[in-house]
Amino acid sequence: MVEHLPIILPLIWAVILALAVFMYVLLDGFDLGLGILFPLAPSHEARDQMMISVAPVWDGNETWLVLGGAGLLAAFPQAYSVMLPALYIPLILMLIGLILRGVAFEFRFRASTSRWLWDVAFCAGSVTAAFMQGVSLGAFIQGFTVVDRAFAGGAFDWLTPFALFCGLAVLAGYALLAAGWLIIKAEDAVLDWAYRCARSALIAVAAALVIVSLWTPLQHPAIALRWFAWPNILMLSPVPLAAALTVLAAWRALAARSTYLPFLLAVVLFVLAYAGLGISLFPYIVPPSVSIWDAAADPKSQIFLLYGTVPLLPIVLAYTAYNYYVFRGKTSAHGGYH
Questions:
Q1: What's the 3-state SS for 243-311?
Q2: What beta strand segments (E) does the chain contain?
Q3: Domain extent for 314
Q4: 3: which DSSP letter?
Q5: Residue 334 lies in a domain
C-alpha cells in the first residue's frame, strides 16, 4: 500500500480540488450572476429583493475559493508556480472585481443618495470577476508553455479569442444560475422577470456549450482524438446527449413555471460541462504537459495536509448546507423570509 501512495495521493487531492472549484463556481456563480443581471432589473425594489435573497449566504461562498487556491499551492506546488504567472493579470482583475463587489454589497444597504453608485460598483465587480474566471478557464484549456518546470510564455498569452469567448460563456452560465435562484426566492413581478431572464440565458448557455465543445477539439488534436476516436465516441457520447436533454428539460420546466427545476437543471448543466472538461484534460493539471503526478508535492506533505482537510471538508459542507436550509423560502423587498 505504501508504495502506491505517490499514485493514489495526487488522485485524492485532484478530487478534493475539483470539488472545491466546483462548489465555488456553483455557490458564488449565482450571486455573481445577480450582479450580471442587476442593470436589467425592472425596478429598485427588484434590486433590493435580489440582494436580500443572497445576503445571508454570499460571503461564505468564497470559502471554497480559498480552499481551492490554498490546496493547489500545498498539494501541487509546481502547478501553482506555473499557473500563477501565466494568469497573473486575469486573476488580479478577478480579485479586484470580488473586492469591489463585496464592498458594494455592504455599503449599498447603508447608502441613500449614493445607492446608484454602489449598484454600478456591484454590477461592475460581478461582471469583471465572472468574466475573468471564464477567461482563466479558457486559458487553462488552451494550455501553458512550460520549460524546465516553469512558465515560459508571455504575460498576455491568455488574451486569445477562445479565452475571451469562454469569459462570455461563463457570464451566460452565471446569469442562468442567478435567474434560477431568483425563481426560487422571488415573488410577483421579479419572479416573472426571472423566468424571462432564465429563458434568454438558457439559449445563450446552450449555444456556448456547442461552440466551446467544437472549438476545443479543433485546436487540440489530442482532445479531438480522445472524444472522437473509436470506441471513445461511443463511450463518451452520453455526456453531450445528457447535456442536450438537460437543456430541453430546463426549457420545458421554464415553460411550466416550475419553481425548483430550472435551478437544479442549470446545476446539472454545470456538472456535465465540468465532466466534459475533466474528460478532455485528465490527467493534466497544467495542460498540455504537466500531469497531477508530475506536479504533486511530496507524499508526506500531502498526507499531512489530509489530516486537516479530511475532518474540515465535511464541516464546511455541513455548515454550508445548514445555512441554506435556515434561509430557505421566498424573500421580499423588505427583508423577510416566508
A1: HHHHHHHHHHHHHCCCCCHHHHHHHHHHHHHHHHHHHHHCCEEECCCEEHHHHCCCHHHHHHHHHHHHH
A2: 146-147, 150-151, 284-286, 290-291
A3: 2-326
A4: G
A5: no
User: Is 131 part of a structural domain of the chain?
Assistant: yes
Question: Residue 313's closest CA among 74, 35, 10, 15?
Answer: 15
Domain-embedded: residue 157: yes
| Gap between the Cα atoms of 307 and 252, Å rounded | 46
Tell me the pLDDT tens digit for each residue of 46-65: 888 888 888 788 777 778 88
- Quick one: which of 201, 193, 257, 168 has its CA closest to 47? 193
**What pLDDT, on the 0 to 100 scale, is given for residue 4?**
66
Phi, psi torsion values for 331, nearest 5 degrees:
-120, 155
Euclidean distance between CA atoms 8 and 327, whole angstroms: 39
pTM of the model: 0.92
Q: Is there a contact between 218 and 193 (Cβ–Cβ < 8 Å)?
A: no
| Residue at 238 is within a domain | yes
Using an 8 Å Cβ cutoff, are 112 and 70 in contact? no
Average pLDDT of the chain, as a whole number = 88
Element (H, E) at 214: helix 188-219
Helix, strand, coil percent content, the chain, rounded in steps of 5:
80, 5, 20
Give the chain's domain count: 1
